[in-house]
Structures are given as C-alpha cells and as structure tokens.
Amino acid sequence: VIMKRDVQMYLGGVIRDLRINRGITQEKLAELSDLDPTHISMIERSLRFPTFKTLFSLADALGIPASKLVELVEERAGK
Fold this sequence. Notes:
By secondary structure, the chain is mainly alpha-helical. Helix content is about 70%, strand content about 0%. The chain contains five helices and no strands. α1 crosses α5 (about 65-75), α2 (about 25-35) packs across α3 and α2 packs across α4 (about 50-60). The protein starts with a helix and ends with a helix.
C-alpha cells in the first residue's frame, strides 16, 4: 500500500522529470496548465497534492494522458 505522502512525493518527482525532459520551465508548465507557477513548484516539491482536475490539466500540458501520469507514479513507487 502506497501512503498518501509517498504518492505525493512520487507524483511531484514524475511531474518535475517530465517537465525537465520536455525542456519547459515551471512558468511555462503553469501557463500551459492554467495554474500558478507557485502551485507547480509546491506540487513538484511534494508540498501540495493536486486535485483530480489539476492532475488532468498537468497531464494535458505535459502531452500525456492522465492515466499515463498515474502509471508513471506507480512505476516509481515500485508497483
């Protein structure tokens, strides 16, 4: 069982890695996902857990389905 804090940590890392691999800044990701850059920073640093709507917005902005984002978190968690 993955604990909420662990999911938050893995999700933040996955989002950060996807963003960096695509060569975009937190500011650009925020623009693409219609979020505040501070919100992106807090998610990446595991200080904030995104809502379901935010998760879909981030996935769309990163060019992947939300299901793939969840799959990447599960892979990182070793599931």
